[in-house]
Amino acid sequence: MGDDLQKLFTIGQCDNASLNLEWGQRLVPYLESALTHAGTYSSDEIQGHVKFFLDHIAPYLSHDGQTGYGPQYPSSMTNDQTPFELSLCWKSLKQDYKPIIRFITDIIPSNAENTRTASLSQSINLIGTLDRVSKESCAPTVHVLPELWRQISEVFLRHEVDVHPSGEECPRCGPSSTFVGFDLKASVISSKLYWLLPSCQSTEKALALLDTVFASCARLHNFFGSPIFLSSWGQICTHMQSNPDVLQPRMLSVDATSFPAPRIKIYTRCLFNEKKSFDEWEQHLNLDGAISYSHDFRTTACNLWTSLATNPEGWKQSRPKAGPKYCLVLYELTASSHSASTTTERYDLKSKLSSKLYIMCQEIPRKDSIIAKELLRHCQLAAKADILRTLADASAPTNFISEIGLAPREQGTEMSVYLNPSFFSRSTWEVAEDDYMTKCRITLPS
């Protein structure tokens, strides 16, 4: 295992030297090691990406007066309240099994106020920072959609007055409201904003909130009011309204990865009752047949899901309720990439309404080595990825893999692995004799 890979799995262990490090200092070696491991970024490009993170994003990860080691903000980003995830993505065989590096972070209020209102307000400050950085004539280029993002955060802020009128912390929602993510290309950083929908609201009310958001966006960008967008969004709404006990809208994302056109993504939790086989819930992935995808994608998704969601035979008696309670389905509507962001252009969908599957590995009670072996076995675009081989060969039980994303491509199935540095949960990692791994959620004392 190379030194860069070794660092990925050892950085973040609690030692005396790291007790008082701020988030930026703690995470920079982790991000730098991932970029080095990818083998596709020059040293100047790596330093440019690291400097961008340290100068412009890390300041939004700590609140004023934060001291000591340990979670101090109830972040919804990860199960152990580490407000950062690394993402490695394999989109095509042209990558030669070398991943594209991405990361996503929480946005933490500087005053340490634990409310959605405070974090939404802080998101507007971050949007201003990204807008300013994108206009600077320096490498790397940063792609942003600040007007749309600011408009959406403001709609969510106004909505908070109705959904949380007391202004106090909501035990079901938590204070995290907005995440920010970045795809790190050689000389371009593509930005993404994510808004968590209030967990305390029903599917019907969550869809009504999204209706309000999209109507507001239509005043800035014609695509949101175009017949093709409204038709596709209507299909999604109808399906969710028909399955309110199964489908829960959880998050909205508008990103600049198809800059200057926006990509609009709705993340939906798909709950299981007793049955969790792929055939039982595929109707939600393909929207009752409205979404088509390749045979390769269906086969990959079905086989990987089955391999991870099916419990060992011995658990039927000893652990009958073990296994995932839900997965995440993403529905995407994206404007054509050649369209400029003006109110005088006509906008079309880049492609037909599409979907993506997220396997939530915190719901899978298996250690990383078992999960990685199944990824190597079923995901052809990452079948020789060094980082997966390293995880598969590990002797000690680890729980870095938090999610797996699968998306259909013209050739093969795109696969993304999301890694939680797990700064605060490593001491809880243990595996029972029957290979069952308990994956604890770390909470702050009330």
UniProtKB/TrEMBL annotation:
Q: Which GO terms describe its biological process?
A: alkaloid metabolic process
Q: In which pathway does it act?
A: Secondary metabolite biosynthesis
Q: One GO molecular-function annotation for this sequence? A: transferase activity, transferring alkyl or aryl (other than methyl) groups
Family matches, as InterPro entries: ABBA, ABBA_NscD-like
Alphabetically sorted, this entry's keywords are: Transferase
Similarity section? Belongs to the tryptophan dimethylallyltransferase family.
Protein name as it appears in the record: Aromatic prenyltransferases PTases of the DMATS/CymD familiy
Organism in which the protein naturally occurs: Aspergillus parasiticus (strain ATCC 56775 / NRRL 5862 / SRRC 143 / SU-1)
Q: What is the lineage of its organism?
A: Eukaryota, Fungi, Dikarya, Ascomycota, Pezizomycotina
